[in-house]
Amino acid sequence: MAGRDWMSLGLLLTVMVSQVMIVNRVPVPWQVAPDLALLGVVGYALVRGSEAGTVMGFTAGLASDLLPPVAHVMGQHALVLCLIGFVAGRVAEIRPEAGPMVALVCAAAGPPVMVAAGGLLGEIRIIPETLGDVLPAAVLCNMVAAPPVVWAVTRVVRGNPRTVSWARYAVRSHP
Asked: What Pfam families does this protein's entry cite (predicted)?
């Protein structure tokens, strides 16, 4: 495996373990947590592009589908993250300066796309409680967590600790 492949595998494992061992165990009153896999895929796709974002989205989604607690159809998260990874990467290829906006839009789009995929697969019934309570809280959690998580992932994926990518334009520190 090449160095980038090992780094990608390490990033994926770190995100998955952090989601299951830390984020999902934090007691919150609204019963939702940010989706670190989604945010990690977005950050990865912003740096590597649509093809790599699609592959990472599928891989991260499939890993997420296998890790407990699983409350959806197998492959549903893989489908959603695959689509989000493609879109984030494609927009970043076309307009690289739009990275922060793409990250926020993808973070907000993830939960509604997950609900829509669940509805299409017959896994969940779209009920007012889901649309009125859980969905807005999930979108808000993802949007609050997006800046630091996506920034950290893009920084790791780029491999240049002196590049800060969350700013509108890349800012390089001088030694």
From this structure: MreD
